[in-house]
């Protein structure tokens, strides 16, 4: 499993193509953050880059130079690689005809990280998608044959994930889930969905990305700083290797015959391309995530669990978790990690409460000699200032545990 996860780490870093470091950890580079939107003009792409986004989900060939100049990676969008309408069935013929020439023209471009094939396919499309995925992997090794999966939960969703891996042989699992309800709630389905995707990723040695809600539409609520933090840090606690924002612009996609849903609002850019209050919220979130990113990309997710009643498909604290209890608060999601290079143990603790801050007071099963945290401001590894350190609603903290010399040392398998 250790060698498998190292290959996963290499794959995701190669896909992202990033190379920056931080004071806490040097090496892998910035954490992958994607704007799930179409963009081909400088004002929009610049607004994405200056917000802290480092990749874009739909980019035509003519905008690749602009992306590179702004430090953005691109999933290449070509109308012949994907069905003409957003909900049409995927048929591989046109993609297989177009890919050789397209790859020949653009694959060596430094902005290219992958090729858009299909969003939210059903199982009945996997056979055709598998042909296109295989072609991308053969013609453009190391690039992402981009397929994003439906949200879901339960036994049928496990089948949906397993069949995707079996029939399509993907390099990454990507899915979307939008948990913000109009009554101010945060759906438990977010945690059920991400748990099942994480479990599938662990079983098959794949990294996973999650697409989170950053623009209200239909019956979804407008994001707030709290719900943006909770979606992002919650995903990090489960070991996500990339996060994406749906959408970055409060308007319909100008491609794929996508419908105007009418009530778009609250995205980082409004329908006229102006930066909104949410742009600042997302920029602030991205800055904090990037301080943790180089460390997170070196960590293997061992287990994710909840304090308080575990949502469906999830679990609580057990004898096999690093945290034994929390000294304050009753609504946390926690991820245990092992460093791939030195075997050190790490914990991500996220406050799930939507209104209340709590002191972060973890108690551990094994004696801890030293407890440190990665500063979300400087990226430095610093002594953890318990009992003074509080977590705001939705906020997460990444802790490093140094066990006492007489404490047993383990290298757990992911579970």
Overall description:
- This protein has helices spanning 2-16, 42-51, 64-70, 92-106, 126-139, 155-168, 189-204, 225-237, 277-296, and strands spanning 33-38, 55-59, 73-76, 112-119, 144-148, 173-176, 208-213, 242-246, 299-307, 323-326, 332-339, 345-351, 358-359, 362-364, 368-374, 381-383, 390-391, 396-403.
- Strands 5-4-3-2-1-8-7-6 form an eight-stranded parallel sheet, with helices on both faces.
- It has 415 residues and is an alpha/beta fold.
- The chain is built from nine helices and 18 strands.
What distinguishing features does this structure have?
415 residues; 6-stranded antiparallel sheet; single chain; alpha/beta; 8-stranded parallel sheet
What is the element layout, followed by pairings?
Layout: H1 2-16, E1 33-38, H2 42-51, E2 55-59, H3 64-70, E3 73-76, H4 92-106, E4 112-119, H5 126-139, E5 144-148, H6 155-168, E6 173-176, H7 189-204, E7 208-213, H8 225-237, E8 242-246, H9 277-296, E9 299-307, E10 323-326, E11 332-339, E12 345-351, E13 358-359, E14 362-364, E15 368-374, E16 381-383, E17 390-391, E18 396-403
Parallel strand pairs: 1-2, 1-8, 2-3, 3-4, 4-5, 6-7, 7-8
Antiparallel strand pairs: 9-11, 10-14, 11-12, 12-18, 13-17, 15-16, 15-18
């Amino acid at each position: 499993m250790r060698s498998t996860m190292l290959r996963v780490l290499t794959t995701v870093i190669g896909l992202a193509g990033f190379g920056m470091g931080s004071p806490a950890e040097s090496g892998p580079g910035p954490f992958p953050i994607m704007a799930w939107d179409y963009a081909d003009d400088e004002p929009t792409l610049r607004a994405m880059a200056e917000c802290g986004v480092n990749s874009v989900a739909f980019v035509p060939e003519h905008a690749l130079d602009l992306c590179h100049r702004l430090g953005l990676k691109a999933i290449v969008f070509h109308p012949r690689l994907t069905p003409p309408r957003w909900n049409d069935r995927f048929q591989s013929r046109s993609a297989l005809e177009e890919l050789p020439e397209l790859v020949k023209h653009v694959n060596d471009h430094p902005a290219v990280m992958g090729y858009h094939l299909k969003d939210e396919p059903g199982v009945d499309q996997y056979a055709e998608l598998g042909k296109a995925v295989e072609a991308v992997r053969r013609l453009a090794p190391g690039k992402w044959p981009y397929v994003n999966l439906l949200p879901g939960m339960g036994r049928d969703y496990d089948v949906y994930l397993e069949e995707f891996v079996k029939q399509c042989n993907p390099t990454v699992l990507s899915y979307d889930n939008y948990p913000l309800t109009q009554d101010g709630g945060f759906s438990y389905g977010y945690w059920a969905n991400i748990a099942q995707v994480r479990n599938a990723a662990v079983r098959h040695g794949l990294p996973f990305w999650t697409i989170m809600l950053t623009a209200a539409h239909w019956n979804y609520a407008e994001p707030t700083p709290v719900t943006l933090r909770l979606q992002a840090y919650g995903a990090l606690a489960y070991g996500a290797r990339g996060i994406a924002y749906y959408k970055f612009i409060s308007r319909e996609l100008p491609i794929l015959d996508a419908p105007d849903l009418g009530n778009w609002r609250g995205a980082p850019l409004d329908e006229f391309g102006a930066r909104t209050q949410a742009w600042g919220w997302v920029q602030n979130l991205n800055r904090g995530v990037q301080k943790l990113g180089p460390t997170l990309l070196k960590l293997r997710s061992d287990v994710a669990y909840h304090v308080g009643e575990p949502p469906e498909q999830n679990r609580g604290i057990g004898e096999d978790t690093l945290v034994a209890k929390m000294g304050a608060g009753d609504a946390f999601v926690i991820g245990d990690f092992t460093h791939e290079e030195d075997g050190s143990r790490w914990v991500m603790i996220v406050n799930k409460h939507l209104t209340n801050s709590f002191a972060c007071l973890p108690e551990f099963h094994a004696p801890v000699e030293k407890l440190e945290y990665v500063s979300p401001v400087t990226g430095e590894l610093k002594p953890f200032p318990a009992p003074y350190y509080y977590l705001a609603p939705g906020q997460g903290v990444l802790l490093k545990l140094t066990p006492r010399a007489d404490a047993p040392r383990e290298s757990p398998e992911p579970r």
